[in-house]
Every structure is written in C-alpha cells, then in structure tokens.
Design a protein that fits this description.
18 helices; binds pyridoxal-5'-phosphate; three-stranded antiparallel β-sheet; about 45% helix
Length: about 400
C-alpha cells in the first residue's frame, strides 16, 4: 500500500475501519470505501447524470439528457437563498440545517432524528451501499434502473444481481428476493429512473416483510413529487414504523435545484449512524446554507409543486402524442419527467449521436434496453425543439 493509499484510509474513523474489516472488506476494498465516502474522484463517477453531462453551453442547445427540471428553483426557495447570502460570513448562524430537518419531519411525519441531509441524495445512496453491502453481502437492483447503487457495489467488490422489471415495468420484488435471499441491500427506485414507472407500495411492503434479517431496503423516491398519487404512494410510513428501510429524496428534480446540491434520507437512527460512521458525519453537516434555506422554503410550496406537476403532465402528454402518431412504442405509464421511446431499428447510442448533431442532448444508453432512449421532459419550448430535430433526424 502506497503512502497516499495509507493516507486515504486514515481519513476513515477507527469505528468505520473496524466496521468494514468485521464485514469482510479487504484493505483494497477498504481503500475504495474510503474514497467513496471521502468524496474524492469516485463520487463524480458515481453520479450517473453528472458523469454524462456535456460541458459548455452551446447557444440554443436543448438539454433533455439528465432528468433535470425544465425550470429553476421555486420563487420562495430562490428568495430564501438570496435573503441568507449576506449572512454567509458565518457557518450557520440561524441553524438553517436544523430548520430544514424540522420542516422535513413535519412534512413527512417522521421524527427529526430519522433524517439526514446531504449534498444530493446520490451521496447517501452510495454510502448506503458501503454501509450495508460488502464483498460477502450483495446488492440487488432492478434492470434497468438508476445506476449509482450498482456502480458503488461494483467499486467496493460487492456481488450484484440485476433483475428485469416486470411486464408492467414495476420492480419484480419476488424475483429480487429470489435472486439473492441473503443480500445486504435491495434497491427500489420508484418512480424508476429511467422508465418513470411505479412500484406499488404493497410490493415494497412485501419485500420489507420477507427480506432477510439485517438487510435493508432502500427506496429511492427522487421523482415522487411528480406522481399523481403523491403523497399517498410513498414508503415513509415504513420508516416511521421502524422498519429496515431507508428512503432517499432529492431537491434536484421537481424543485429545480440540481446545481444547489441538496438531498435527504430518512431511516432509523441506528441505520443513519452507519452512513455517517466512516467520515464522522462531516459531509452531512457541511452544507451551503443558501441551498438549505432554499430547500426548506420549497418543500412546503404545495401550490407550486402542484403547478409544476400539472405543467409536466401536459408537456409529457404532448410528447406521448407525438410518438404515438409516429407509431413508436413507449414504456408506459410514466409518472415522472421522463419518457422512454423504442426506436426499434436504431440503438439509443446512434440516436444520441444523431440528435447531438441537431444540438439536442439525449440520455446515455441503458444496456438492458439498447434501442430505447430516455427522453427527459423539458419545457414546452424544449420539446417543440426536440420535435423539429426529430423530423430532421428521421428524414435524414
Ligand atoms: C433515481 C435517482 N436517485 C438519485 C439521484 C441523485 O440526485 P442528486 O444527487 O442530484 O440528489 C438521481 C439523479 O438523477 C436519480 O435519478
């Protein structure tokens, strides 16, 4: 082990090192876990949307590749951030972080000590894999799904099982349990990225009731505010009931704050402690206060949330009609700001290249479905620009 590697491992707390060694991590995998929780180069590679972001801002480029919101932070959030800028010579003079946690607790009906905030939920997601998987405790995910958990598991040498979605594109929870009845972590993304499809709460409950003792179910609800069933379709009640469940949320989607980097997770305090163990909790506490203030002010802006959902449903409907008229198969029903379309005779990669030449950014390929592209639903103008580009690409 080089001096540099020894230094990286030293960033782990003693408790964190003992925990990793006792769970079968080799020194090499411990190094990787240290890099992952230390926010080094690994963290960027773990964020699938950021890793694929095209740099620069070409004039008129239509950015519908990364599932970002089509518009910026909500007005109350932007105001709260602006109002606190003048106090940013202090670390957190008005306890904004605590205020955000109190707001989340009241909104989601979970106790305050069941909540941790992060610079985006991706961070919590990667850490949950370090905390609950190991070279002997695997990960089970759907396929296709959001990649972070799988990338993190691969990075630390944990075995991975990827299970196809059901015919109606929900997570096949029975097949997921059968794929590895002794896994450390079962990852459910609902609505699922990239398909936008939901997994019924009853299926999440089934998995939680039948999974092996000591394992966790992580429910990623990054897109939940876009869904028509919200708030009756979340799994937060399982956290409040003390189950082995972690729920991930982000302000990067409907709240339009991807660049402000705020997310949170909810779970039992003993589970949350495991996410903090390896770096002594630093990252969850050191967050920019304008971002925290914006998050708190946005979370309860219910009218604005409803308005954005309505706008999405309209523009997504318009996009569906466009594909339907051209007899293209779609993955339906999507409940989020994304829609998958099957080109059938072209690969997603070929179409990404063809659209890039028209100044339209499309998503990366999801290898389980090589001819299907995830289209992020942008603004009405974005989608009209996409339709114009489509006509050029298809007639070329
Ligand atoms: C399903 C899902 N989970 C988590 C994230 C992470 O978001 P962030 O780190 O920006 O909070 C994303 C981002 O695209 C996502 O699609």
């Amino acid at each position: 082990m080089t001096l540099w590697e020894t230094g990286v491992i030293r960033t782990l707390t003693d408790e964190g090192k003992d925990d990793l060694l006792s769970r079968g991590y080799s020194r090499r995998h411990m190094l990787r876990a240290a890099m992952l929780v230390g926010g080094g180069a690994a963290a960027i590679a773990m964020h699938p949307e950021m890793a694929f972001a095209a740099p620069g801002a070409a004039p008129g480029r239509i950015r519908i590749a990364l599932n970002e919101c089509w518009t910026g932070p909500m007005a109350p959030g932007a105001k709260a951030a602006a109002d606190i800028i003048s106090q940013c010579n202090r670390y957190d003079p008005t306890e904004v972080r605590v205020k955000l946690i109190k707001t989340i607790a009241a909104q989601e009906k979970v106790p305050e000590d069941h909540i941790l905030v992060w610079p985006g939920s991706n961070e919590a997601l990667a850490r949950s894999v370090v905390a609950f998987c190991s070279p002997t405790k695997g990960l089970v995910t759907a396929d296709p799904t959001y990649e972070t958990a799988g990338t993190a598991a691969n990075y630390i040498g944990a075995p991975i099982k990827r299970v196809a979605l059901t015919k109606d594109y929900s997570h096949d929870v029975k097949a997921m349990l059968a794929a590895n009845p002794k896994a450390g972590l079962y990852y459910i993304c609902t609505p699922n990225n990239p398909s936008g499809t939901m997994t019924p709460v009853a299926d999440v409950e089934w998995l939680v009731a039948n999974k092996p003792a000591g394992s966790v179910v992580v429910v990623d609800e990054a897109y939940i505010h876009f869904t028509s069933g919200y708030p009756n379709n979340t799994s937060t009640h399982l956290v409040a009931a003390g189950k082995d469940v972690l729920i991930m949320r982000t302000f990067s989607k409907i709240f339009g704050m991807a660049g402000m980097r705020v997310g949170f997770c909810m779970g039992r305090p003993d589970m949350l402690k495991k996410l903090l163990m390896h770096d002594g909790g630093a990252l969850s506490h050191d967050l920019p206060i304008p971002s925290l203030a914006a998050a708190a002010a946005s979370l309860t802006a219910h009218d604005l949330i409803d308005q954005r959902r309505k706008e999405l449903v309209e523009v997504r409907g318009m996009t569906q009609d466009f594909f339907k008229k051209r007899n293209l198969r779609m993955i339906l029903p999507t409940e989020a700001n994304m829609l998958m379309v099957d080109w059938k005779t072209k690969t997603a990669h070929e179409m990404q290249t063809a659209f890039a030449a028209q100044n339209v950014e499309l998503a990366r390929t999801f290898p389980a479905w090589p001819t299907v592209t995830r289209i992020t639903i942008g603004s009405r103008a974005d989608m009209e620009g996409f339709f114009a580009a489509f006509n050029k690409v298809v007639s070329a």
